[in-house]
Specification:
The protein is an alpha+beta fold and about 190 residues long. The chain has helices at about 1-10, 120-125, 160-185; strands at about 15, 30-35, 40-50, 50-60, 65-75, 90-95, 135-140.
């Protein structure tokens, strides 16, 4: 999975005029369309660099009429609101999978209580056809003023070497204990 993510992030940006599919997950993209201003939401609580805040998101209507959820960025709880620039016709970011973070994450209760970014619910909340919602989220690389862009690459630990040392160490300890127990039983 790490190899696929790294390869996707290293790819050149893909221009999207219609709903991107899951094959473009973790790829840089440039979306062409316009904002749907009625759909601005915030997802909370979200931590970034040890601080608690909110992630702001809004639907973006692509040129073919499909909808992509756009993660605008993170802000501490002191930010009261943001305004989307009306003149924007294209956005750049990374397409990330849209999925519930874990079993323990509560369900969303639109319009005000969002705990994770769900593109279908975001489209429904904005009064749009949820069948036209893309399965991916566009995480902006340059956030609007007042927001901080979240990293494009997920923080997935790569602990394979640590696991190998742990298991080989446990196997070695078991072998030594077994050898000593066998030797003591023969005395």
């Amino acid at each position: 999975m790490l190899t696929e993510i790294n390869a996707g992030l290293a790819a050149p940006p893909t221009a999207i005029n219609n709903a991107p599919n899951n094959t473009l997950a973790w790829h840089p993209a440039r979306a062409f369309g316009s904002w749907v201003n009625e759909g601005l939401i915030h997802v909370a609580p979200v931590t970034l660099l040890g601080k608690v805040g909110k992630v702001y998101a809004a639907p973006f209507r692509l040129e073919d009429g499909s909808i992509v959820a756009v993660e605008l960025g993170w802000a501490g709880n002191q930010l009261n609101g943001i305004t989307l620039p009306e003149t924007v016709k294209s956005l750049e970011g990374v397409l990330i999978p849209a999925r519930k973070p874990s079993y323990f994450t509560p369900d969303n209760h639109p319009p005000n209580n969002w705990y994770w970014l769900d593109p279908i619910a975001l489209a429904q909340n904005a009064g749009l056809n949820s069948a036209k919602a893309a399965p991916l989220i566009l995480r902006l690389t340059q956030s609007p003023e007042g927001l901080t862009a979240r990293p494009a690459k997920p923080d997935i630990p790569d602990n394979h070497l640590q696991y190998a040392f742990t298991w080989f160490g446990l196997a070695m300890a078991w072998a030594v204990i077994s050898f000593l127990a066998l030797r003591k039983s023969q005395e």
